[in-house]
Amino acid sequence: MTREKKSRPASDGTAYDYLSCMAYNDSDHSSKSLSNQSIFSNIPNELRVLKQWICWGFERVANRTKLAKVPYTPGTFSKASATNPDTWRTYDEAIASVATRNFDGIGFVLTEHDSYVFVDFDVAPEADGLSAHQIALGEALGSYSELSPSGKGAHVIVKGKLPPGSRNRNGTVEIYDCARYMTMTGNSFGNPHIIDNQPVIDRIVSELGKGQTLSGHIDLNAPQTEDDRALWDRALQAKNGGRFGLLWNGQWQALHPSQSEADYDLCEMLAFSCRNDPCFEQIVRLFRLSGLGQRSKASRDDYVMGTALRAVRKVAEKREQQRRYMNSPEYQATVAALIAAANSAALKT
């Protein structure tokens, strides 16, 4: 049964009561409501005019207990990439694809060329809603906010920049500014505009950096723990070593639609092949020794270091996801069942 909507909270345009603003839209939070495309018109026009849109669909992914939001190129059933502009489309194309191709929603891709920062407030598994601290941060940001696709969490989009190598996540708070896409629901509340607020962004980054259980931590000063040849050999002998060899030799055309995506792929494979925390300088140096690193664009420090940084961030996130999965009750129960079955079989013999 749908509850009666409350009157939209009054505001002076600078401060918003997160609890009452969220309550205003709480009857429209399910992903099914996204099929009503008029709600997307709440998304600020400054985002809608950019060609940085994708669609996404819920799918089951290995080593994930929750359904993943898999990105797709609007107008197709091809996977999209947050690092490949060739897979992005216009807002209108994304909206049309949700209606005609049965996707679950739309998303906006964050890049190093724009000034947007995405703050994601998730609800803890044991909680009924956002924490008091999350609400305080949302009110302090004071920028355009939406309910998440689940209707339980909140997203805030604000203008600013993250310091290089900063941590992106601590428990139920995440923050990103490039190489990611953010789901957009249009189920907005509070300030309808995106504002600049670097001081609060810096505050959030500082708080995340103090966490001890933070995922996606990147140490840009991590020491080199093995020589280049050992790292290169491990990458070549991996399951995707064939692809690595082609990219290392500069043969990207059959693997990626653009060389920029190939550059990122090679950097990610190098970072993933590190036994310990990837040495940022080593990844950059090895990339520039490869065939892909010989084009003029690779002489630009901003391009190469930005690409390597995104790759190192992604590897850190993947390793954290794997760690969390291996510590999950589901995984522990599976291991216990396998051990019990093996012991039972041994006793029978």
Number of helices: 11
Query: What is the general shape?
Result: globular
Low-confidence stretches: 1-15, 27-35, 211-218
Instruction: Write the H/E string, N to C.
Output: HHEEHEEHEEEEEEHHHHHHH
Largest sheet: 6 strands, antiparallel
Kindly give the count of domains.
2
Helix content: 25-40%
Proportion of residues in extended strands? 5-15%
Largest sheet, spatial ordering of strands: 7-8-4-6-5-10
Question: Can you tell me about this structure?
Answer:
By secondary structure, the chain is α+β, with helices and mostly antiparallel strands. It has two domains: about 190 residues, no CATH class; about 100 residues, no CATH class. Helices cover about 40% and strands about 15% of the residues. The protein contains eleven helices and ten strands. A six-stranded antiparallel beta sheet has the order 7-8-4-6-5-10. A four-stranded antiparallel beta sheet has the order 2-1-3-9, with helices on one face. It starts with 17 loop residues before the first helix and ends with a helix. The N terminus is likely disordered.
